[in-house]
Amino acid sequence: SAVISQKPSRDICQRGTSLTIQCQVDSQVTMMFWYRQQPGQSLTLIATANQGSEATYESGFVIDKFPISRPNLTFSTLTVSNMSPEDSSIYLCSVDGRGGLAGSLRETQYFGPGTRLLVL
Amino acid sequence: RKEVEQDPGPFNVPEGATVAFNCTYSNSASQSFFWYRQDCRKEPKLLMSVYSSGNEDGRFTAQLNRASQYISLLIRDSKLSDSATYLCVVTDTGRRALTFGSGTRLQVQP
C-alpha cells in the first residue's frame, strides 16, 4: 500500500495566521485529495489536486482560504489561511489507489495520518 | 438531505454478537461503494469494497441494493478489536473523490 506522510502532525495556531500542511507520497500518483474532518464529524472533501493544473474545489471551499500546491507527482501542500477557531479540524490528504501504486487495489484510496489543527 | 446517511449509533454489543450497519445514498449515479473503518484519532482505512453481488471477507459481509440505494455491513462474532467507527463511502462515475457518511460507532464490550 502507499505510504503517505503529513507534516506537521499537529499544531496550535493563533487566529489570523496561516498554516501550510505538507503531504508526501512514496510513489507517483495522478490525483491527490484534501479532506477535512471537524470534531465529531465525518470527512468532507475540500479539493482535488492534480499535478500541472489548478486544484478543483468543492462547494463551500475557495482557493483564497485553502490554497493548494501540487508541484510534482509525489507532493502537495494545503494552506489554511487567515485561520479562525472554526478551522480547528483534522486535515487529511489521500491518494487514489489507481495509477501505478505497487501492490494497490484498483479501487482503494489511501489516507495520510492527518494534521490535527487547533486555532485559538 | 445528506448524500450518504448512516445511523450514528453508538452500537454497544457484547463480544460474539452479530451486528448490522445500514447506509443509504441519494445519488443514483453512484458507482463504487466501500466500507471504511476509523479508529479513534486515526485516519480511515479501507475495510472492504461493496459489490452488487455482495461480498464476504471473513466475519464481514457487505451487500448493495442499487434499487433501494442501500448498503449494509454485517459483522459476525464481534471482537473487542472491532470497536471503531464504520464509514459508508460512495463515489460516482468519473469522480475519484470519496463521499463519506457520518459514520456509525461500534463498541464491543467484554
Descriptive labels:
heterodimer; A: 120 residues; mainly beta; 7-stranded mixed β-sheet; 4-stranded antiparallel β-sheet; B: 110 residues
Number of strands of chain B: 11
Question: Mean of residue pLDDT of chain B?
Answer: 91
Biggest sheet statistics of chain B: 6 strands, mixed
Helix/strand order of chain A, N-terminal first: EEEEEEEEEEE
Distance between the termini of chain A: 36 Å
User: Can you tell me the residue ranges of chain B where pLDDT is under 50 for at least 5 consecutive residues?
Assistant: none
Strand percentage of chain A lies at: over 45%
**Rg result of chain B:** 13 Å
* Chain-averaged pLDDT of chain A: 89
Give the distance, in angstroms, between the N- and C-terminal Cα atoms of chain B: 37 Å
**What is the general shape of chain A?**
globular
Write down the secondary-structure element order of chain B.
EEEEEEEEEEE
Helix/strand-derived category of chain B reads: mainly beta
Biggest interface reads:
A-B, 20 and 17 residues
Secondary structure: number of strands of chain A: 11
Count every helix of chain B, treating DSSP H or I runs of 4 or more residues as helices.
0
Q: How helical, in percent, are the residues of chain B?
A: under 10%
Q: What oligomeric arrangement do these chains adopt?
A: heterodimer
Structural class by sheet pairing and helices of chain A: mainly beta
Helix content of chain A: under 10%
